[in-house]
Structures are given as structure tokens and as C-alpha cells.
Amino acid sequence: QVQLVESGGGLVQPGGSLRLSCAASGSMSSAYEMGWYRQAPGKQRELVAKVTSSGTITYADSVKGRFTISRDNANNTMYLQMNSLKSEDTAVYYCNAKNLRVLKVYEYWGQGTQVTVSS
Q: Is 78 helix (H, G, I), strand (E, B) or coil?
């Protein structure tokens, strides 16, 4: 079992910055793929960024050049540095871990942290 806990969300003005953290515990492995997803009111959950166990990173087009994902395997922690924030970035951000090295792919989710971008 893997537990994921997000932190770092809050209220920020447009153009500002925020850093989210995801602390993993339990049977977490550096071999898992990890990523950040978000869900805005009235919208479906979408991928923001992800990083594989080998370090390959993928970003949503809407955040390229503004967000940076990273992971600290030694401490089982993942980060999302968000710069030049826009009102469209307002959403609940969720941490995700995915075990791909099994016959049935299994995913874990955190409770989410609210990010509000408003003047």
C-alpha cells in the first residue's frame, strides 16, 4: 500500500509562483511513475506533468515553460514548481503514483491540495 500526501497549495495572484510537494510513504518505489493531475470546477481531471522512473518528463501543453516537475527518490518526494500562474491554473492538484511493472497497472492518489490564482 502507498500513501500520498500533497502540500503547498494556497492563494496566489496571477503571475505569481507556488511549489507543491507530494510525500509518499508505505511501499512506494522509485520504479513507479509519478505525476501531477488537476481538476477545476466543472472540469474533468487532467494530467499536468509526469516523470517516469528513468527520468522522462511529460508536460501538458498548457503548462510547458511555466511548470517544472521533479522527484527526490531518496526521500520519496515529488515536487511541482509553478511559475507565471494564471487564473486558468486554479484547481485541486492531485499527486499520482503508478506501478507499471505488474500485469495489472495500479494507481495511487493523494487527497489533493487547492491552488487558487486570483487578484
A: strand
Distance CA 87, CA 74 (A): 34
46 CA to centre of own chain: 11
Q: What are the C-alpha distances in Å from 13 to residues 18, 51, 53, 93?
A: 10, 28, 34, 17
What strand order describes the sheet that includes 67-72? 2-7, 18-26, 77-82, 67-72
For 72-94, the pLDDT digits (tens) are 988 899 999 999 999 999 999 99
Whether residue 113 contacts residue 7, with contact meaning beta carbons closer than 8 Å, is answered with: yes
Nearest CA among 30, 32, 26, 51 for reference residue 97: 32
How is residue 4 written as a grid cell?
A: 500520498
E strand residue ranges, the chain: 2-7, 10-12, 18-26, 33-39, 46-51, 57-59, 67-72, 77-82, 91-99, 106-109, 113-117
Distance CA(81)–CA(105), nearest Å, equals: 27
